[in-house]
Structure formats: C-alpha cells, structure tokens
TrEMBL record:
Pfam families: PDDEXK_1. This is PD-(D/E)XK nuclease superfamily protein. Signal peptide: none annotated. One of its GO terms (biological process) is DNA repair. Residues 14-149 form the PD-(D/E)XK endonuclease-like domain. Keywords: ATP-binding, DNA damage, DNA repair, DNA-binding, Helicase, Hydrolase, Nucleotide-binding. GO terms for molecular function: ATP binding; DNA binding; helicase activity; hydrolase activity.
C-alpha cells in the first residue's frame, strides 16, 4: 500500500514539473490597432496554452542570450496587439527563443506603460521633450534619432 502511495505522489510531482503544453495559435500574422494608440506589428509566434491563454514569442538568431529592454518593449507591444485583436486572455509574460534553442521567459510591460512610451516618442520627435541618451551607449548605436539626444 505504501508503495502505491509513493508512486502516486511521484506521478503527481513529475506531472506538476512539466512545462505547459503550448500549441501554435498564430505565426507571423500582421496585426493593427488604432485604440488606445495606433500600433501595428507581426509577432513571430503566439502560442495557446491548454486553458486557452495566449503567449507571445519572438525568435532571435544570435548566440548571445541576453534579453534587451527593446525586446521586452517589442514583446509588450505584441501582447497589446494580440489582446486587442483576439478575444482571448493573454499572459503577462512572453518567451524569447535564441539560436541555440534556449528560451527565456520575460515579464511584459503594462498597457499604460506602452501608451506612455508611445506619447514620449512622439513628444521627442516633435521637440516638446528633450531626449536623453541611454545609460548604455550600445542602445544608441543604431538609433535614427540619436542626433536629438542631449
């Protein structure tokens, strides 16, 4: 009898350690919204969990497995696009997949943070707000607006 109890406990423990079963829901589909702000994008992948929750993902072809702030912003925008165009719950996290097949879970920004970034961007472009360079100059290397920073 005790052997059976150990087997059942081991079974439930192993089952609880499994990753959630994800199935592809959407692949590189162009999405566009106008409310609450105009945005568009094409998430690399959106997965659907067993309970119907959607999870956004992005593939990176680099070996370096560092997750950059710009990638969190990108996935957060995808999350907002998916939330507004699909009638399903969307997870507050996403996954970045790297070339070596490793993936990292990242927690995404809230809708109000994306809206604030959008308005800040247009205020910088319009000259109403003075831009400032990032602490890490590598972020600025390819920026088309770096000439506007103080």
């Amino acid at each position: 009898m005790s052997f059976l109890i150990v087997v059942v406990i081991l079974y439930w423990w192993l089952r609880s350690r499994r990753k959630p079963k994800l199935s592809p829901y959407m692949l590189e589909q162009f999405l566009k919204i106008t409310d609450p702000i105009p945005l568009c994008g094409k998430p690399d992948v959106v997965w659907k969990t067993r309970d119907g929750t959607l999870i956004v993902g992005d593939y990176k072809s680099r070996e370096n497995q560092q997750v950059y702030e710009s990638e969190v912003i990108q996935l957060s925008v995808y999350k907002l696009l998916v939330e507004r165009t699909q009638n399903k719950p969307v997870a507050d996290y996403g996954f970045i997949h790297f070339k070596n097949r490793n993936m990292k879970k990242v927690y995404l920004m809230k809708e109000k943070e994306i809206i604030a970034l959008y308005h800040r961007y247009w205020n910088v472009i319009g000259g109403e707000v003075v831009a400032f360079a990032a602490d890490n100059k590598n972020y600025c290397r390819y920026c088309s607006h770096k000439h506007k920073c103080s």
